[in-house]
UniProtKB/TrEMBL annotation:
CDD domains: Ribosomal_L10. The lineage of its organism: Bacteria, Pseudomonadati, Thermodesulfobacteriota, Desulfobacteria, Desulfobacterales. This is Large ribosomal subunit protein uL10. One of its GO terms (biological process) is translation. It comes from Desulfoluna butyratoxydans. Forms part of the ribosomal stalk, playing a central role in the interaction of the ribosome with GTP-bound translation factors. Keywords: Ribonucleoprotein, Ribosomal protein, RNA-binding, rRNA-binding. InterPro entries: Ribosomal_uL10, Ribosomal_uL10-like_sf, Ribosomal_uL10_bac, Ribosomal_uL10_bac_type, Ribosomal_uL10_CS_bac.
Length: 173
């Protein structure tokens, strides 16, 4: 690869790393082309990019980005998964893929300026999807006003019950 192509690769990766929500560094040594293609297809479905690049180019591209925190993991055969929106989706896909293909390993990840080890990434992968989390928040937000309306509606109902009981008591006497 000549110098111009290397600069183009570094610039492209730098731009993507700067915009990323999460970057996951993996070791793909021992995987065949079919397995990598399958993984790449699964990641692409959820809007995640999977790049294989030389470690020196990855180090240069990660300068002045959050990915610079995991440059020490850029050793040996390295591929990175970059997600721009949902950090949970690539974590789920890669964790599942690693369980099925023991040759692949997750090295490190960085999300919003914080590094994640393999255990942290596994915990992230066990979270519900973004849509499920949003629906849970929405239902929690909706529960408060609904409960308040029930409580406020109960006050006049109880008052009517008390007045009705007083009326029945006076009629009986």
């Amino acid at each position: 690869m000549n110098l111009d192509k290397k600069k183009a690769v570094v610039d492209s990766l730098h731009e993507k790393l700067a915009k990323s929500a999460i970057v996951i560094s993996t070791d793909y040594k021992g995987l065949d082309v079919a397995a990598v293609t399958k993984l790449r297809a699964e990641l692409t479905k959820v809007g995640v990019e999977f790049h294989v690049a030389k470690n020196t180019l990855l180090r240069r591209a990660s300068e002045e980005t959050d990915a610079a925190l995991i440059t020490d993991s850029f050793k040996g055969p390295t591929a990175i998964a970059i997600s721009f929106d949902d950090p949970v989706a690539p974590a789920k896909i890669l964790s599942k893929f690693v369980e099925e293909n023991e040759k692949m390993q997750i090295k490190a990840a960085v999300m919003e300026g914080k590094t994640l080890d393999v255990n942290g990434l596994k915990a992230l992968s066990e979270l519900p999807s973004r849509e499920v989390l949003l629906s849970q928040v929405l239902s929690a937000m909706n529960a408060v006003p609904t409960g308040m309306v029930r409580v406020l509606a109960e006050v006049p109902r109880q008052m009517v019950n008390v007045l009705s009981a007083i009326k029945d008591q006076k009629e009986a006497a």
